[in-house]
Amino acid sequence: MINLRNILALVAILAAINASSAEEHSIVLASTTSVEASGLLANILPQFTAKTGIKVNVVAQGTGKALDTARRGDADLLLVHDPDAEQDFMDEGHGSSRRQIAWNDFIILGPSADPAHVKGGSDSIAALKAIATSQAPFVSRGDRSGTNAAELRLWSYAGYPPDQLAKEKWYRDIGGGMGQALSAASAMDAYTLSDRGTWLSFNNKGSLVVAIEGDPRLLNRYDVIELDPQKHAGAKLVAAKAFADWLVSPEGQQAIGAYQVNGQRLFNPSARSPK
Amino acid sequence: MGDFFEIVGLSIWVSLAATAIAAGVSLPIGAALAIFRFRGRRLIVVLVNAFFGLPPVVVGLVLYLALSRSGPLGSLALLFTPTAMVIAQAILATPIIMALVHRASERAWARYGDELTSDGATRLQAVPQILMIIRADLVTAVLAGFGRTVSEVGAVILVGGNIRGLTRTMTTTIALQTSQGDLSLALALGAVLVGISISISATVFALAGGARTAGSDEV
Questions:
Q1: For B161, which of A59, A180, A204 is closest by C-beta distance?
Q2: What pLDDT, on a 0 to 100 scale, did the predictor assign at position A203?
Q3: What CATH number has the domain bearing residue B92?
Q4: Is the domain of A48 the same as that of A92?
């Protein structure tokens, strides 16, 4: 049993090293794959860290998983984009404040051959109905992310609730991140729903093109959520608040708006006039 | 590309630390399992060999729940840190190294056991001597453990969180870049990973060959 004791001692030492080497001022931000995959956070975080000395460690998950991570107490702050799931999180008392920082839009992408004949339109519901009727493959994230939630909402407006979609052969639930869904759609000549940020920064587009855009129902809002101090006493809430405040400050908003890929702005700052 | 060396460096550091811990635990226990006779020994040997193929994602999941702030070890605040990855990989490497050390020790004990205990030396004293005799096999065992850790992705991505600049290793970067469609960077990192694995294997096997020759001269 000497060895068991040794292991425990070692873990304790490692924990001590860890606590001293990982800066006092670092927070865990549970976020969505889209703000990470689009390169936004990699671009703006150094500006915040340079100003405050607080390092932000981003765990990029889908919105659903990110909210669960925070519920378990494993995150200090949230940056997510699923209004309904966020409202549940707030109603459960896990969050203390929820503020919008930016918006962009979802787009429906499809193969350039466009078997469902939906290209160029702006009515997302009509397009989904046409895709279903034509039985053209459609790739779903299937990961409880904000994009997945938005997609399922649109499908139910179109008359296809999730349990019915699950039965359809052309509906392909891949259980993956946005990039994976885009890769899969590109490989299968399928339609899919994406946030614009990830799409613009994606490097393996293949024959995928934008089929539907400009529908008001395709609005995509990003919120920063601070955690409730009573439920999450272990979280680093002061440092987390500093980052949340920075995101909505003129400086943070300017940094978000200035981020471009190939000359296109990916996120529109909206802290002052939430959409 | 400044990230590149950081990622490669972290991968190697985490794998080396995990392998070192696993070896520190496995060498004495692996040899002791061959030398000592006690109730439950066979069961332990069977379990160690069964854990040889422990699924990394399951190790990752269990460790994730244990290290979560709402889990039993939550107060250590280790989730999403390099330390969590070291622990996960050490858990994966330990049965591999231990099983290999045990097998080699058993052969050596069958051959030299009487000799080693003939002049009144205890079995405990025989442990380091057996390890000395099988030192060439130890290199192989530790190498197998290192190979497991450096190429593993399922457990480290769960407990490390794939955080840029903190817990992003070669394997998790390859998974991420592939999912983002950056196939060229994923391939480049894959080439580095394969290159590192091959060159370490080649170096250590060359050294092991030398040790084996030297060892056989002595014995």
A1: A59
A2: 83
A3: 1.10.3720.10
A4: yes
Residue B13 Cα distances to A12, B81, B107, B153, angstroms = 19, 13, 33, 15
> Does the distance separating the beta carbons of A73 and B182 come in below 8 Å?
no
Residue of A nearest to B175 (CA): A180
**Å from B211 to nearest chain A CA?**
28
Which tokens is B149 given? 């850790």
Q: Which helix (H) or strand (E) holds A31?
A: strand A26-31
- Give residue ranges of B with CB < 8 Å to any A CB: 21, 24-25, 28-29, 68-70, 74, 76-83, 86-87, 161-167, 178-183
**Tokens 């399951």 correspond to what residue?**
B58
Residue A8 resides in a domain: no
Count of structural domains within chain A: 2
Q: Are residues A204 and A126 in the same domain?
A: yes
Q: With helix as H, strand as E and coil as C, how does A220-266 read?
A: EEEEEEEECCCCCCCCCHHHHHHHHHHHHCHHHHHHHHHCEECCEEC
Tell me if A22 and B76 make a contact (CB, 8 A cut-off).
no
In a domain, A94, yes or no: yes
B79/A74 CB distance under 8 A: yes
Residues A248 and A224: their CA atoms lie apart, in Å, by 9
Domain around A183: 105-218
CATH code for the domain of A40: 3.40.190.10
Q: What is the predicted pLDDT for the residue at A275? A: 85
Domain contains A9: no
Q: Return per-residue pLDDT of chain A as tens, 275 residues.
A: 445 556 556 566 555 555 444 445 899 999 998 888 888 999 999 999 999 999 999 999 889 999 999 999 999 999 999 999 999 999 999 999 999 999 999 999 999 999 999 999 999 999 999 999 999 999 999 999 999 999 999 999 999 999 999 999 999 999 888 888 999 999 999 999 999 999 998 888 999 999 999 999 999 999 999 999 999 988 999 999 999 999 999 999 999 999 999 899 999 999 998 88
